[in-house]
Amino acid sequence: MTSLDSLLDPDATLTRVATGATWSEGPCWIPSEGTLRWSDIHGNRILQYSPATRETSIYRDEVEFTNGRTLHPDGYVVQCSHGHRRVEVDDAGTVSALVDSWSGGRFNSPNDVVVASDHAVWFTDPHYGITVEGEGHPGHMEYGACYVFRWDPHTREARPVITDIDEPNGLAFSPDESVLYVSDTSAVRRPPGVGNHHVRAYDVSVTDGVVECTNGRTVFQIPEGIPDGFRVDESGNIWSSGPDGVYIFTPEGSLLGHVPVPELVGNLCFGGPDGYDLYIAATSSIYHLRTAVREAATAGRSHGHP
Questions:
Q1: What superfamily does domain 4-303 belong to in CATH?
Q2: Of 44, 153, 202, 306, which cross-links 213 as Cys (Cβ 3.0–4.6 Å)?
Q3: pLDDT for 113-139, tens place per residue?
Q4: Residue 5 host element (H or E)
């Protein structure tokens, strides 16, 4: 079995490279700028870090509580807005709506997003931006649930593809896009033992031109806390956030190892010029760890890595 040591650079050392946020989320490497961009959700701003200068700056503020983001293969950023209750595009600083409703009702608060190789946009829609103070604006669930959606680039419409998860949060594809992983974080604000803190897998197929997600099964759960955001590497291993660091699992759910981080981890991404830099978004800070693997090729194109 693969070991944790084989996944990390021999000289890997966890290093805090940026701080000053209130709740760090949605990290994404921007290759054209050589920077890491992430959300400070409660601060209602987007921050960026430059490894070349080692400086952190404000990319934009008053951003309507953006959360997860990814790089579209065409070079622009696709991001989730809690405040606008939509998925939107940031093209060189110009922000516009991609999609904000389904079946006559607004989304709850899109949370995390990934772009597939066919340019379809997949995103989760829990209720945190309309129910949790400091993460959006108070509101109600207009379609009455929390789903995972797929936005079709041809019809320009969104359709629910997973409807059996209480509170879908992070998501990522297997390297060949045959499996979609989604975290359920419904335990986050419930009493101990109530709610879910696991990652589920779904087989992705196309029947008569319709994309379907079937055979849902739980792959792993985080013992304490929740698996918020996560990424899949080129071997199919899942790098998940956790309450005290990053947990790495095989595609079958076996734990490969744990990287301790001194703050609560919300999300992570691979990046850097060669794709071997892991950036970890944890409460107030961004941490860096050099790895021996990169993100899966499909997801790598979405996130801008080679």
A1: TolB, C-terminal domain (2.120.10.30)
A2: 202
A3: 999 999 999 999 999 999 999 999 999
A4: helix 4-7
